[in-house]
Amino acid sequence: MSVVVRSFTKDDIQKTGELYQAVTTKSNSVFWWVGEEDNWSNVFIAIDGRQIIGKGQVSIVSTIQKGSSLEHKHYIYLNLKTLPEREDDYLLYDLLYEPLLSRAFELKQTLSNEYKTMVGIGNKVTEGVNNNYFKAKGFMYWKSLYTMRRSLSQPIELSVVNLPYLCNQWDMSLEDSVDEYLKVDMEIWPEAPIGIKQFMDNQNHTAWTAFVVRENGVLVGSVMTWIDEDGDGIIEDVFVRKPWRKQGLATHLLSQAIIYLKNNGCSFVELQVETANKSALSLYHTVGFKEESEEVRYHREL
Known about the structure:
single chain; alpha+beta; twelve-stranded mixed β-sheet; 34% strand; globular
């Protein structure tokens, strides 16, 4: 095999775009884009002649903060994709998997050793060949998620909230508001907090904003939203703190995000939800979302 595997560079962007088009046009796949230059040390490409035939990428997706329960774990994820005609070439997978795993171990050293670190992958359920490769590497089923989609041509019913609740768009002038948000986010998802890095990365997306609900100044709920590279709206990190649930706050936050995206020219909006989260599924159905595809996640200890 005359394949060379090396780190990604700026000169590879166009050919990586060609790989992206080949993979995503052929099938419904989870393909990570390479991101900004400070992320390229986490990206590896396989080249045959002058063509990029495969790409691997690694990223820390959740970091557990000290003081959390020891049952929680850090998560590092891998993404490995090849040209469709090479999708069953496990020798090619191996060439990319080796540097990916090595880089994952390097990233693990930056995390608190007080908590275990897991390595995971997320693929569409239809990516059977790719999923089977990782299962052969010892990855075990963890959970599944639906991607849900809503057309913004559908009627949007504006949900309202009454005093003492106030819903506002994120005020970036409040320097302490990020710390407040991260603290509440950790309360909601202690096993997978968003963390400051992911929060800041989200803010780099086109038209990023968040809507927050407060009661007498206390943050009780929020939703983030932005526009992806395809021009679709994305909704993420929807939460209402437990004492304030079942009062219509989540519905109100979603309606605010949907209207915001429509006003910014989007035709569709997407979000993800765990398939086992029946209450969240019911909420999203109520505001017009429908399941479009399913992603399955596998993991093992690193």
